[in-house]
Amino acid sequence: MSGRRMSRRIRLGGVALAGAVLLPLGAVAHAGPDRPPGRPSPVEFGAAPSLVTVSGLPCLSGGDFTVSMTNTSSRGLFADMTLAAPAPITLSRRLFSSYLPAADPDQVVSTKVLAKVPRDALPGRSTIKLTVERRTVELPVEIQPIPEKGPGDNLALGEQAFASSTHGNVTLCGGVDGNKNSEEWGASGTHDATAGVFPDTYGVILPAATRIGRVELYTLDSARYPAAKMGLRDFDIQVHTSTGWQTVAEVRGNVMGHVTATFAPVGADRVQVVTYDSNDHKYSRIVELEVYAS
Amino acid sequence: MTAPRNHREMLAAVTATRRRFVTATGAAAALALTGTLLGVRSATAEATGKDSRYLFTLGVASGDPLPDAVVIWTRLAPDPVAPFGGMPDRQVPVQWQVAEDERFERVVRHGTAVARPEFSHTVHVDVRGLEPWRHYFYRFRAMGQISPVGRTRTAPAPDADIARLTLAFASCQQWNAGYYTAYADMARNDHDVVFFLGDYIYEVGIPEDGGVRRQPVPMEAAREAFTLDDYRAKYALYKLDPDLQAAHAAAPWVVTMDDHEVENNWCGPYSLDLPDPAEFVVRRANAFRAYWEHMPLRLAQLPNGPDMQLYRRLTYGQLVEFSVLDTRQYRSNQVARGAWVAPNDESRDPSRTITGDIQERWILDGLGASSARWNVLAQQVLMMPVDRVAGPGVESPMGTWEGYSASRDRILRGVYERGVKNLIVLTGDVHANFAGDLKLNFTETESPTVGAEFVGSSISSEGDGVDIDEWGRTILAEGPHLRFMNHQRGYVSCRVTRTEWTTDYRVVDRVSDRTGTVSSRARLTVQDRVPGVQP
């Protein structure tokens, strides 16, 4: 299709080829002693970083890395990299096959991969195996413990976010990633995908019903995009208890970047913000949603 | 939105020096082609280990008929969307048979091909030594399993004066936009050959719930395709559809590609989305490779990295000659990124081309030399101009021939000057049915009509349609050369005789569920030696 409906833009977010990632080939030993006899392979391969760290925290799990292959010969060729990880690690990509052009200087062709572990994964070391032409590289993985949250900690940090919709330019987890800096909004905030359509919902699932008494909401409020022009205007903060959703704060006509809702502590397993309008009447922009015991 | 980092920065960091090895992969590829395409029995046929999982999940296909030959295709894929289709990393011998009858009592050709992992265990057998203008049945056997039976038909002998040809053409089959009900209808009707004019897959991401199909999509097929395995997974997902398989099994297909087999609105070396040409080269090569693997194409069309010889000619005796075009690979960059804007100095610039100079000469030389009664360009995008603005303003799609109007006018003037008989242009891309006259000069209603263009709607892309909408009404009103418009999904069935070309627009009332019904929306004709669509 050309022309009439070209609203879509290709995003390189999850998968990108050469050009997307700088890959130090020396980061991981490649082409080890188990290389099959005969002609040496012209494909060099590796991964970066040299240690993958991942945790079971749903929205702050880490686990992203880049794999790459490079053709060092003078003829273009296709090559396959298989990726394997033992349970409980799951990978977003089990295979990376690509054309590898012959270029001078050599051209690195790479793609992003995400490793995930479940919440109950035991901390420890593991390895991801990358194999090209029967040569295997082991990429170490550190499964990190989920940080213990004390009485004064943000209970929403890194927990599973949910939303009525999420715009393609941001991530669902952007509102619970611990970054409340509006100047880094593009990289670490979140908003809905439905311009001018309200209400929008954004919330977080707590790992278990927990006693909570305070919610801190940060909406977009940067020098360039002040809250009075771009932030949430009319919204409710709701908590989910054994009897259903309860509204703990009703905010109307807001122009501030930071809103605190304090309420009589209640046992809840979810918190959400329901936005009825924003100051630009388009998107519901949330930089960070924090939940505290009191 | 994550922007790619600076490519030069990346290259600068890579210090490995060039080495000059003959690659093992390259050698294997050459072997695969001689062994597979020529049907040569493999000297290294490995043990025929049995596999309890069904291998022929993606059906069979045939394509590019010649008077004595046709390509037959299948792929061994027990777990089609999974890495390597669920196949082991080894060659598998695949027996094939071509018979005159459906029960395979009169087998006329048979052999053993090798399905090789580096071609995702696809098999392309260029079956030679067949009789012209004859129906054949074909099937494969591998690892103790027998494939479904496909039906195909060779082309007539070059000098044969056949009385009738039936053909269908289709385009734009976005999987998650709708069901392929149109293909079920196509498969039920008898066509000598089917043309596919582009957008066989869509490279973009698929919702995990499968869009209107409401079925879970494995991550390999759901993500946007960049790598070869990503593109292979898209073909696997699409080709799992039973109606698409039925249409392939019913008749030989002649395929060409448009943009979405690679990337939305790509043109030549230019990508709208990957600013680094080196990055797009890799994507294009990955897309081309997966395309060739999954289409019933000959060795002549096997891509060489990011290049593929896709334009080609097929002749049906003295009745029809088909020139299958490639308007993507050699086109100049698009005006306004292919958007609908007013034609301007740039879009009219005679130095710009949609075909490339070599293909343009090939088109005109071929048309000039043709002795066929009907001369068909099977191609991707609208050749005639369309204007979506009522009244004095003009907005036309710059991704079509109108965005390269000098390129179009050179072809149409060349056709006119050479006295080419009965030019018919078959088009896809726009997700709408149109029919109209191709004019020597579209701005003058009295200008000679050079041929007729039949534009076929999408199989599924854009979802349920309507008979006509404001967009279509405006375009019809603004285009005096236009004869017909419809905005439903479907395909086009044509019947060609010595005296008349009949185009039957088959439309589907809905594609959002499996229960849509297909009917003929319009039947339009072109008379022999009377250029243009009959009013």
Written description of the protein model:
The complex is a heterodimer of chains A (294) and B (535). Chain A contains two helices and 15 strands. Chain A has helices at residues 185-188, 227-230, and strands spanning 43-48, 52-55, 64-71, 77-84, 90-91, 95-100, 108-116, 124-132, 135-144, 160-163, 200-219, 232-241, 244-251, 258-278, 286-292. The longest helix of chain A has 4 residues, at 185-188. Helix content of chain B is 20%, strand content 25%. In chain B, α3 (181-188) packs parallel to α6. Chain B starts with 6 loop residues before the first helix and ends in an 8-residue tail after the last strand. The interface between A and B is large, with 63 and 77 residues.
Short description:
The complex is a heterodimer of chains A (294) and B (535). Chain A is mainly beta.
SSE diagram, text form:
The complex is a heterodimer of chains A (294) and B (535).
Chain A: E1 43-48, E2 52-55, E3 64-71, E4 77-84, E5 90-91, E6 95-100, E7 108-116, E8 124-132, E9 135-144, E10 160-163, H1 185-188, E11 200-219, H2 227-230, E12 232-241, E13 244-251, E14 258-278, E15 286-292
Parallel strand pairs in A: 2-9
Antiparallel strand pairs in A: 1-3, 3-7, 4-6, 4-8, 5-7, 8-9, 10-11, 11-14, 11-15, 12-13, 12-14
Chain B: H1 7-13, H2 24-37, E1 60-66, E2 69-75, E3 92-99, E4 107-115, E5 122-127, E6 135-142, E7 145-146, E8 150-153, E9 164-170, H3 181-188, E10 193-196, H4 219-222, H5 228-239, H6 242-250, E11 253-255, H7 277-294, E12 312-316, E13 320-324, E14 340-341, H8 357-369, E15 374-378, E16 396-397, H9 405-418, E17 423-427, E18 433-439, E19 449-455, H10 470-478, E20 482-486, E21 489-497, E22 500-508, E23 518-527
Parallel strand pairs in B: 9-10, 10-11, 13-15, 15-17, 17-19
Antiparallel strand pairs in B: 1-2, 2-5, 3-4, 3-6, 6-7, 6-8, 9-21, 12-13, 14-16, 18-19, 18-20, 21-22, 22-23
Helix pairs in contact in B: 3-6, 5-7, 8-9
